[in-house]
Design goal:
single chain; 304 residues; alpha+beta; seven-stranded mixed sheet; five-stranded mixed sheet; 8 helices; 14 strands; 22% strand
Length: 304
């Protein structure tokens, strides 16, 4: 298999000194090769467009040949490179194991199928519930973001330091809950406007959360975290020291602001790992900005 051979060549190359387990470096190389394939495959266009079965319908109500082809390649390559690992994908599902790859081949399929631009590939390796390798690719521009636990973040292969995004004059990102606003979204938008920020809905939760992690946007708040879509972005945020965490339903963040660093899952795990807050409201950004924007979610009647 040509792609797997290229992965092996990359793994054998003379890497700069890496503070991470060599097995994670190899896993990153596999993920990067698959991200490159995803970008190339997407460039050929969506091909056949079908409605998703009702049981699987969610943020995107359609599935294309590209979704299926990319996920199929991910399963083939990972199965050959890491036969002991499980794969859970947006299109074919799967069951998590000790080592699990979570893949959304095209997050923002509605955008992609309509030719609207922003859509993203997400691939995240999780070990015992904690993300250790993550790759996100913009399927239009080809920009690839990668992260390894303990090894930092790169954008287009170059080390990245988080930008200090401002709220006043900056961008706040969010996404719809399927076809509608999520409870509290209107309050978030009002708070952002009063702070002088522009609110944008890009149509890809993967790309939106990643942009907030990188600091290109001040904050991103979404209605529900999913490892398939947001696991890689959570690792990017963790490696850049960017606050990211679950928001308690009905309470949002504590009155004095969200806890510093790490994923808030109702308490820090005793082993110090970063667990993923599956299906909980989720935010990425500086703790100050997140606290400011989500205060009204705790009290929608707060005076303006």
């Amino acid at each position: 298999m040509g792609l797997l051979r290229r992965v092996n060549e990359l793994a054998a190359a003379d890497h700069p000194a890496d503070p991470v387990d060599p097995s994670l470096t190899r896993a990153r190389d596999v993920a990067l090769a698959l991200a490159g394939f995803a970008v190339r495959r997407a460039a050929a266009g969506p091909g056949r467009i079908d409605a998703k079965p009702a049981a699987r319908a969610g943020d995107d109500e359609v599935v294309t040949d590209v979704d299926v082809d990319i996920e199929t390649r991910v399963r083939e390559v990972i199965g050959a490179a890491f036969p002991e690992h499980a794969v859970v994908g947006e299109e074919a599902g799967g069951e998590p194991a000790e080592w699990t790859w979570f893949c959304d081949p095209v997050d923002g399929t509605t955008n992609f199928a309509a030719g609207l631009g922003i859509s993203a590939f997400s691939l995240c390796l999780v070990h015992n519930g904690a993300p250790v390798v993550g790759v996100v690719a913009n399927l239009l521009t080809g920009e690839i973001v990668d992260a390894v636990a303990g090894g930092g973040v790169r954008v287009a292969g170059l080390p990245w330091t988080r930008l200090d995004a401002r709220l006043d004059g900056g961008v706040v990102l969010t996404e719809l809950a399927g076809l509608r606003r999520w409870p509290g979204q209107a309050e978030l938008e009002d708070a952002a406007a009063e702070a002088g920020a522009c609110v944008r809905v890009l149509g890809s939760g993967t790309w939106s959360t990643t942009q907030a992690a990188l600091g290109r946007a001040a904050v991103c708040v979404i209605d529900a975290f999913h490892s398939l879509d947001h696991g890689a972005a959570a690792l990017v945020a963790a490696e850049l020291g960017c606050w990211h965490g679950a928001l308690d339903t009905g309470a949002s963040v504590p009155a004095d602001g969200p806890p510093p660093g790490g994923v808030s899952t109702g308490g820090t795990p005793t082993d110090g790992t970063r667990r993923l807050p599956e299906r909980r409201p989720f935010a990425v950004g500086s703790s100050e900005h997140v606290a400011h924007l989500t205060r009204r979610l705790r009290n929608p009647k707060e005076s303006r």
